[in-house]
Amino acid sequence: MALMGVQLVVSLLAASIMQRMAPHFSFARWLLCNGSLFRFKHPSEGELCALAGKQMPKQTRRDRKQNGESKPLTVPKDIDLHLEMAPVKMMDALVLRFFLEYQWLVDFAVYAVGVFLFTEGYYCVVDASKEVNIGALWCVLIVFFGLKTLHTLTSHYFRSEEGGERSVCLAFGFLSLLVAMLVLVVREEYLEFGLEPGFSSLFDNLEIFVRQQGYAEWSIPVTKLSVKLFLAAVCAYIGALLAFPGLRLAQTHLDAVQMNSERPLIQILLHMGFLSPVVVLVLWVKPIARDFLANAPMGKTSVTLVSSAAFDSMRLWIIVALCALRLGLTRYHLQAYLHLAKKWVEQMKKEAGRIAAIDIQRKVTRVFCYLTVVTLQYLVPVLLILFSTLSLKALGDFSWGVGTEETPGVTPAVVMSTAAPVLSAGPDEDEDGMEDMEEDIQATAARLSETFTALRSVLTPLFFRGFLSFLTWWVAACQLISSLFGIYFHQYLMQN
């Protein structure tokens, strides 16, 4: 197995370029600061006093605090306030919360796509079946980093003592646990994830591998029921992480559709992007998707419209296209979020009474301060679906084109040699340390090669097909559930 091959060199080169280019050019910074997003500036106390028809106090807010005057400056709520718009600039974005996490994740995702495309082309040109797919490793890392980012954002909701955010996360977690337990008992004839053959392949190959290492009496003390219970717990965790991203998606979707009321094409694309998780769910419902295309009813007979291998490829293409559509609609959703400041001011004008000037400034400023948080909540679920699909293609031995269907994962576990590799020694005992270092590198490479060979023999493509298919489907299901609840909440509960 070639460890120091072309793939690893390109991977290290991509990591080096990402590190060196980050201070000069960043796709994440360009996404926010390319001049297409506009924020609203908070009004100053002088502007509020002028709109209220009163003279600006000579003492500033700091002077009033130093003199012991705690009474804030108040203005009527129904003043004719119009917020000033300004494009989001780089210096404005650098002070946003979680900006560094956002920049690193988005840039890493862009370079991961580049490495994945290179490995796909490399596998088309060269027979690299014995090499480790570096592009798949980058995609798996994006999935883990995306979940970690959502965990960081959700932990802040748990630390909050107000607003009931913790209760919302727990409620969605328990709901996801119940739904996952129901989904996991559905037979493969209806939901074709391939979990049953995947776990069977994992257990069989693991038992063979362990016995080859000398543990003849060893047996796997894990049942399929315990594995499904653990998987249901993981699903509940993912459902809790995707609760607020789904609620936020519903809010920005409604606002974006309203903002583009005079652009029907954009509205259609927004609706398609919002309902794209439904398409992802249907693609794994066997009677609706695969059976309908493979045995389409035509009178008293059935016609095969698409072969099974072609359907697998078509499913990958559809999911990638839907993710590309949602990524293309990012600007509309972010601008809809930034318009919450204007929306709040318009709502304030309809109310009676007075309000402190500092409260107006805080409300307007707070919307912009959470821009990167909202961006992460919109992008991370899309990246999870996209890169889990790319990992499914690479690790599950699928093809982008129509080809012959093969049965993956039938190769038994390969015997991993326990003896140390034989290395050539120098004729003299007093050779310099360079040769010893080279031998150590060769030994390390040999051990890594044996480790990857063992992993490939246990974690077969049949296992990855089942696990990654279920992961992709479940992320789409969680986002659909939370976003539909968000639509109901913002459309009906908030108006009552």
UniProtKB/TrEMBL annotation:
Determine if Transcription regulation is one of this entry's keywords: no
Family to which this protein belongs: Belongs to the TMEM161 family.
- Annotated signal sequence is 1-28
Annotated InterPro entries: Transmembrane_161A/B
Keyword line? Glycoprotein, Membrane, Signal, Transmembrane, Transmembrane helix
Q: Where are the transmembrane segments?
A: 135-155, 167-186, 225-244, 265-285, 367-390, 467-489
List localization entries.
Membrane
Indicate how the chain sits in the lipid bilayer.
Answer: Multi-pass membrane protein
Q: Output the Gene Ontology cellular-component terms.
A: membrane
Which Pfam families does the record associate with it? Answer: Tmemb_161AB (PF10268)
In Swiss-Prot or TrEMBL terms, this protein is called: Transmembrane protein 161A
Indicate the principal place this protein occupies in or around the cell: membrane
